Amino acid sequence: MSTDEFWTTDVAAGDDQRGQWRQMLSATHLPWTVTVPPQRPGRVFTASVRRWWIDDLALVDCECGPCSGTRRRREVNATEGEFLVVLITRSGTETVSQAGSEANLRAGDAVVWDSTKPAGFVVWEPLSKRSLLISRAALDEVGGRAWVNAGVTLDGGAPATRLLTQYLDTLTQVLPQLGASAVAAARNATLELFLGAVRGDPDVQAAGTVVPALRAAMDRFIERHLLDDSVSPTTIASAHDVSVRTVNRVFHTTGQTVGEVVRMRRLARAREELTESTCPISSIASRWGFCDGSHFSRTFKAHYGSSPRDYRVAARTGSRQGGA
Question: Who wins on pLDDT, 92 or 37?
Answer without folding.
Answer: 92
